[in-house]
Design a protein that fits this description.
36% helix; single chain; alpha+beta; 26% strand; OB fold (Dihydrolipoamide Acetyltransferase, E2P)
């Protein structure tokens, strides 16, 4: 089975060594795209993405970037699916176990919110140190001819 790959075009705004900042403009389909988790709004219809750059691009060059569907699915699961499971399990445990808050909905809800907040704090720390999301990568560059 083939892996889904999303491809977008953009312009390099700055080079960051092995990575480049790519501006995607006039992307009307972003509202329905699951890859919007990777993009960051920059105002209006403009999105900005940090992509791996094997070509050594320079600002102003047009590029095509690709992101795999599995990377998007992993991001969605870690940011939304797993926290939902943590919330539901901690809420159920707090409400039904005798040693926590049996029958007290408000305390059980607050407990579940705190546990979910702890998950996000742990996730934030771990994503900076241990979890490496697959960044989009530049797959082609349209270089302009320069006058010497």
């Amino acid at each position: 089975m083939k892996e889904e790959i999303l491809i977008e075009e953009g312009i390099v705004s700055r080079s960051l060594g092995k990575f480049s900042e790519v501006i995607l403009e006039n992307v009307a389909e972003c509202e329905e795209c699951s890859a919007r988790l990777i993009c960051k709004p920059r105002g209006g219809d403009t999105k900005i993405v940090v992509a791996r750059d094997p070509f050594g691009t320079e600002p102003g060059e047009k590029v095509k970037i690709a992101v795999s569907g599995s990377a998007i699915l992993k991001s969605v699961f870690l940011l939304y699916g797993l926290p939902l499971l943590v919330f539901i399990i901690s809420l159920t445990a707090a409400y039904s176990l005798k040693f926590l808050f049996p029958g007290d909905e408000l305390k059980s809800f607050v407990f579940a919110i705190l546990i979910t907040g702890f998950y996000y704090a742990l996730f934030s720390f771990a994503s900076k140190k241990f979890i490496h999301f697959s960044n989009p990568r530049i797959i082609s560059v349209s270089r302009t001819q320069r006058d010497n």
